[in-house]
Write a structure and sequence with these properties.
alpha+beta
């Protein structure tokens, strides 16, 4: 199964959120329906970046790396833009 690591942005809270999933469409919908406790207050969320990886282990490692670095800094450092 393929996994992806994603970064969301909330204009209303000016916050980024990083996560990992197998189904990005379903996960984004859950964020925007307020079904995820940690992102409930930032609706609507915009998908900023999706990075596909092969295993959940890879996804968890990359998610952790992004969270340690900070999503905005990760995006800028890797020339993804904000």
């Amino acid at each position: 199964m393929n996994y992806c690591v994603y970064i969301l942005y909330s204009e209303s809270t000016e916050r980024f959120y990083t996560g990992q999933t197998q189904d990005i469409d379903k996960r984004l919908a859950r964020h925007n329906l307020g079904q995820v406790k940690s992102t409930k207050g930032g609706k609507p969320w915009e998908l900023v970046l999706v990075i596909k990886v092969k295993t959940r282990s890879e996804a968890l490692k990359l998610e952790s790396k992004i969270k340690r670095r900070g999503a905005e800094r990760f995006l800028n450092d890797n020339q993804f833009g904000v």
